[in-house]
Amino acid sequence: MKQIAILGSTGSIGCNTLRVVETFKGEFGVAALGAGSNVELLAEQIEHHQPRVVSVLDEESADKLRFELRKLNFTAMPKIGIGVDGLCDVATADGVEIVIGAVVGALGLLPAYRALEMGRRVALANKETLVIAGELMNRAAAKSGAELLPVDSEHNALHQCLRGEQRHEVKRLILTASGGPFRTSSKEVIENATPAQALNHPTWRMGAKITIDSATLMNKGLEVIEAHWLFNCSADEIDIVVHPQSVVHSMIELIDGSIIAQLGVTDMRHAIQYALTYPARHPTDLPKLDLTTLSKLEFFTPDAEKFPCITLAYNALRAGGTMPAVLNAANEVAVAAFLDQKIKFGDIPRLIRAACEAHTPQPALSLDTVLAADKWAREWVEQGIADCGLRIADCGF
What we know:
With 397 residues, this protein is α/β, with parallel strands linked by helices. The protein contains 16 helices and 11 strands.
């Protein structure tokens, strides 16, 4: 059996990965699981899959996990790690061949990097890892011979579209976006949107942070940077179109004008199965797309004025170096502040823009360099929020 490790096992991608594994009985074993503080669910996963190594957020979570396992009469306790070090233990556990990277935000960077250093296939659902340190991740993979595969639905679709195509014959990549909950809203409505409104995604059910990113369209901006590192395309070769039906997950345009698209239902298990079984394809009982039920497929140009995060992401990619790390960190802090109702929805891009303008990008030569830029941006934005409170727009941001 191929042994897998899951970083973020109690989240949506992690749970769906385990569901896929359960359909391939005898082909995959679960060697290690990394989670946060949802120890009740993690305990159930441990009971069912018997991993040797697990990780949780902190010591308090570890104590709770031991308690939950004792309640289940669990006798063979796995090794329990803590925090980022624990996630690295999960990613580098003995015998692991495939690592699913599904930890939200910058937290997933170091574990995925360590897995690549060891030559393991890393299937990334965490786009922030490549946004922050794409050059370093690619360098580590090239040195060890590791495979870096996308689980993110759009990049997974691009990977499928590019199979068998010659790179010099590809003119551009086309990422599709649902448009989020505010696709048809006015700029004023978007400016003052509540967390409940922003979390009401029309297509996907995801975690809070990525759902807010989908509402600002920063999610799509981060995906442009991710696509750059995954497929060696410049910013000018990557476009975004709004596709409300979310049936076409992404497309490529070839130099002769042909467009190849990957279509499917909105179920992440398809992308997860692809990443686990690649290069082979296997039959599946997962939901299939019924083309006869499609009434229309629409495509629109995203409104950069209403959704300035797209432009901010393109600018960060073109600036290069540590700028994408600053963009990502500023966004993470701003989104958390919005969810805590410390700032307005419209303040998210203001804070990101201000942080990027205040930063002088440095070459991304090491993890220490990008992590230092990440730390600087977080502190800079947190200080700006503390100084201005709910009056971000009045403070020059």
